[in-house]
Structure formats: structure tokens, C-alpha cells
Amino acid sequence: MRRLLAAIVLAGTLGSAGCVTPSIPIPPPDPTLISFQLTGEPGSTTASFSYPIHPTLVDAVVFVYNRDKGVGIIENAHPDGSVGPTASVRADLGDQMVISFQRDDQTASTCIRLKEGSQDGTTYCDP
């Protein structure tokens, strides 16, 4: 009887581990969907980040970091999974901008060279 009870408990324990549903991974930010609005005069410009609705970004924390200037901002995605326009961060054309989305224990990032408006899908940061 004890062995039967132990086998049932063991089977239940192992079976319950298989019921854990993995979360949907956050894809890296798509550079062609990234948009920056630049304001100010050359040499003293700021950039505000935007990203369209994406279902995996609901409840995500968004990091926008200027690698060249060493400054950035942290904001939450909107309830629909869109982002921005965010607060402005100091940035000039061509600066290396790291965009990171974080949800639970997942983080996905992309680094691009800054330009006005939609970003280029082939102009990445230096290694």
C-alpha cells in the first residue's frame, strides 16, 4: 500500500511539472518598426521613442539607452502593447541607441544608429 501511495505521489509531482505553460518569448525590437522623433538644434537634440502595438509587449518595461552619451530612460509599455512617445533622451543623429523590452524574466534588445523617423533595418551599432 505504501509503495502504491508513493508511486501516486511521485506521478502527480512529475505530471504537474508538465502542466507549466511557458510564456511567449519577447521578440527583439524590429528596427523597421522603431521610430524616433528628434527635436532641438544640431548638437543639442533630444529623441523620443515610439513603437507600434505588439501583443507580447503588454506589461513590458522599455529601456531606451544612448550608448554614446551614457543616458537613457525607462518607461512602461501602454496596456495595448504600444510604446511612446516616451520622454526625450539626449541624442544626436548617428548615436548608438539600445532599445530593450523586458517582461518577467525575459529581455530582448536591439541597437541601431539613430536617424529621424523610422529606423533602418540594416544600420546596427558597433560590436
Mean pLDDT over all positions: 86
Unreliable sequence segments: none
Q: Write the element-wise H/E pattern from the N-terminal end onward.
A: HEEEEEEEE
Give me the Rg, rounded.
Answer: 21 Å
Strand element count: 8
What is the spatial order of strands in the main beta sheet?
A: 5-2-1-8
* Overall form: globular
Strand content: 25-35%
- Report helical residue fraction: 10-25%
Structural class: mainly beta
Oligomerization category of the chains in this entry: single chain
Plain-language structure description:
With 127 residues, the chain is mostly beta strands. Helix content is 13%, strand content 33%. The chain contains one helix and eight strands. The chain has a four-stranded antiparallel sheet, with no helix packed on it. A four-stranded antiparallel sheet has the order 4-3-6-7, with no helix packed on it. Strand 1 and strand 2 form a beta hairpin. The longest helix is centred in the first third of the chain and has 16 residues, at 2-17. The protein starts with a helix and ends in a 9-residue tail after the last strand.
How would the blueprint of this fold be written?
Blueprint: H1 2-17, E1 35-39, E2 46-50, E3 61-66, E4 71-76, E5 89-90, E6 96-103, E7 106-113, E8 117-118
